[in-house]
Specification:
heterodimer; A: 435 residues; alpha/beta; D-Maltodextrin-Binding Protein, domain 2; 18 helices; globular; B: mainly alpha; MetI-like fold; 12 helices
């Protein structure tokens, strides 16, 4: 019954080792040698992209011994919560990588610095005004938009070419009506259990609203009093109506992909089950990696409507924390990161398009290979995603719009009910945020 | 005869239900292992197979190349071991008092332990962050370990109270009759019988800390300090896109320590529980 001493000694040793390890891993004191130290939290996650970011940080550090930047890896999956707590605790990174549709609450809440007076003219003039609009909240610019991706149609080249349908180009895209007819024709030719298109609509709101710009849809309207209300016009019904009809009337779109994310739809696409899949431009990397040997694919522009080939995007952004003691230096670093050649490196690493006018001219982004040229041709028609700066949009999206669109696309509710929910329920949500 | 048949059918049904449950539990893990060894083209196949057709270690190489998995695993190990150790050291005497002294204070304490389990992470994270910041414990494993200890303590306490109550009070009374003092009784009589419970509780605290993500995400800032669950999210992109092969490979490796530890001590837990239950 006595306590066994060797075990006791082992336990004591283990505790001592652990204490040493823990204390050894505790934070050290920052050196106070006059060097400015900035923390840059990047959300880059694909190898090429991480490498490009790290290389640029190393190049900056080598050229600026008095302003050293520390690369910190963040994650798209948790960035909002992580930033929220960091801001509250006054421990936010100096330079913050995020997307424009995540910035509104931080910008209006005074967490992100207004860069209007800090940005150099070179950077201001290199990025088009419509891109700056995506990071302008109130009177201030709270981020630098630098990468963006249009939604494109990734198509099975063999099925498309053998069908005899007109192949759209960036200059002459399909109209929404023509697109619907093409998917019907493709479905008829492909046979049972196969579809002209697969809409992966796990997150239906941003896809619907962004593509809706092409049909003149706006959904969110700002009144003279500055308050935003929701109105469902004829233009707003074109994109959801087309998707609904493809799934529920024509049977030309797969019903089973409605609840899927983009990646989930790829096996069916590779297997010849779907002729086309609408995906973000950066999905091309996954397709290159995963497509079976000999699989031929091509990139087509999304359909256009009364509004032309416009579509909404939420660019990736670089912002500066309001709490940063070195905002000027942080903006200098951003300016370095986004010099045209560097922006090209970042764009290629993420398989996206740069916002910068000079970077977009780079020949590497205009090759036919992997559909770069089609994407680059669409860049001029990209606009800020509707409603991304509207306060209350996240709640409207999660509680009202997502279930409403999902039910509409699956055929559970009709267009009148969709309109009622989006407008009536939606305006109640927005009103709470605009009192 | 009929009763025998029904008995056999019932037993077969029980085994079938058990098998179905085991398959249900094992499916995600087996799929994870399968995915970890598949090349990208097989991951995109319309007809996925359980056994990779062209097995590869490339996902593991890529995972180690792209992320500091070993360093992160080391951080996780230190945090989880320390949290487990400290939690049981604190919880054991507390549990003994709560199990043996039944009064209003004990009832209130038990109620508080139960209620504290209902607090969601998001409710406590900002106050915790501010408190730790004041003590300069942000971005330190020590700070994270303190949070893990506090977070696992209520449940650890709850578990241990049950184990203490399972130890017959008569054994302690017999020791007292033989002249043993309170401390001697606790150390020589109760503690050995509690060992399986302490091990089980430590295991719970270890696994909780090993898998924990949100506190580590918020409290640790620099890459050198990050734990394994946080590093695993670096394989995830926007809109739910994931680098599936390396993610599966890294996640598979991350589950191994929990499995090994459980495999080593599970016999001890059940064996110890039986030994404690029967007075020889």
């Amino acid at each position: 019954m006595g306590v066994r001493k060797p075990r006791s000694r082992a336990l004591t040793a283990a505790v001592a080792a652990l204490v040493l390890l823990v204390t050894g891993c505790s934070g050290g004191q920052a050196r106070d040698d006059g060097t400015i130290r900035l923390r840059f939290q990047s959300l880059a996650w694909q190898k090429e992209s991480v490498d490009a970011n790290k290389e640029l940080v190393e190049e900056w550090n080598a050229a600026h011994p008095d302003i050293q930047v520390e690369y910190v890896q963040g994650s798209w999956d948790s960035v909002h919560d992580q930033l929220l707590t960091s801001f509250e605790g006054g421990e936010a990174p100096d330079i913050i990588h995020d997307a424009s549709d995540d910035l509104a609450d931080f910008a209006y809440g005074g967490r992100l610095a207004d860069l209007s007076e800090l940005l150099p003219e070179r950077l201001r003039s290199d990025i088009p005004e419509q891109s700056w609009e995506s990071t302008t909240f109130g009177d201030g610019i709270h981020g630098v938009p630098f990468l963006q991706e249009p939604r494109v149609l990734i198509a099975n080249k063999k099925i498309l070419e053998s069908s005899g349908v007109r192949v759209p180009t960036a200059e002459k895209p399909w109209s929404w009506a023509e697109f619907r007819q093409v998917t019907k024709d493709l479905t008829a030719r492909m046979g049972e259990g196969k579809y002209g298109i697969a809409w992966p609509l796990k997150e239906p709101v941003s896809v619907t609203l962004n593509l809706g710009l092409s049909a003149g849809g706006r959904l969110f309207h700002m009144g003279d009093d500055g308050k935003v209300t929701i109105d469902f016009t004829e233009g707003d019904s074109v994109v959801p109506g087309t998707i609904h009809d493809q799934v529920d009337v024509d049977g030309s779109a797969s019903r089973s992909t409605l609840g899927m994310g983009g990646s989930d739809s790829l096996p069916g696409f590779f297997g010849g089950k779907y002729a086309m899949v609408p995906l973000g431009f950066s999905y091309r990397q996954q397709i290159v990696q995963q497509a079976p040997e000999g699989f031929e694919w091509t990139v087509l522009p999304a359909p256009a409507g009364a509004g032309g080939p416009l579509q909404g995007v939420s660019p990736q952004t670089l912002s500066v924390s309001e709490d940063s003691a070195h905002k000027k230096e942080a903006v200098q670093f951003i300016d370095f990161m986004l010099r045209p050649p560097n922006m090209v490196r970042l764009a290629k690493g993420d398989w996206m398009l740069p916002t910068g006018i000079q970077a977009l001219k780079d020949p590497a982004l205009h090759t036919q290979k992997d559909g770069w040229a089609t994407g680059a041709a669409l860049a001029a028609d990209l606009r800020p995603a509707p409603a991304q700066s509207v306060r209350g949009y996240p709640e409207w999206k999660d509680k009202v719009a997502t279930p409403a669109y999902q039910e509409y696309y699956s055929g559970a509710i009709d267009e009148d009910e969709l309109r009622k929910r989006l407008v009536e329920d939606g305006n109640l949500v927005l009103a709470r945020y605009q009192r | 005869m009929t009763a025998q048949r029904i008995g056999r059918a019932g037993r077969a049904g029980q085994y079938a239900a058990l098998l179905a449950y085991l398959v249900f539990l094992a499916f995600p893990f087996l799929w994870l292992i399968s995915t970890a060894f598949k090349p990208p083209r097989e991951l995109g196949s319309l007809h996925p197979t359980w056994i990779p057709e062209d097995p590869t270690l490339a996902n593991f190489r890529q995972a180690f190349d792209e992320q500091p998995l070993l360093r992160a695993a080391g951080n996780s190990l230190v945090a989880a071991l320390a949290a487990a150790l400290v939690a049981v050291v604190i919880a054991t005497p507390m549990a003994y008092v709560m199990a043996r002294n039944r009064g209003r204070l004990t009832t209130a304490a038990t109620g508080w332990v139960v209620v504290s389990q209902a607090f969601p992470f998001v409710l406590v994270i900002i106050p915790l962050f501010l408190i730790l910041k004041n003590f300069h414990l942000i971005n330190t494993l020590s700070g994270l370990i303190m949070v893990y200890v506090v977070w696992s303590l209520p449940f650890a306490l709850w578990m241990l109270v049950g184990y203490v109550r399972a130890v017959p009070r008569e054994l302690e009374e017999a020791a007292a009759v033989d002249g043993a003092g309170r401390l001697r009784t606790l150390v020589s009589v109760t503690a050995p019988l509690l060992a399986p419970g302490i091990v089980a509780t430590a295991l719970f605290a270890f696994i909780t800390a090993w898998n924990e993500f949100f506190f580590a995400l918020v409290l640790l800032k620099t890459p050198e300090k990050q734990t394994l669950p946080v590093v695993l999210t670096h394989f995830l992109g926007a809109e739910g896109v994931a680098d599936l092969g390396p993610l599966a490979a890294a996640a598979f490796l991350a589950t191994i320590p929990s499995l090994v530890i459980f495999a080593i001590i599970q016999k001890r837990i059940t064996g110890g529980m039986l030994a404690g239950a029967v007075k020889s």
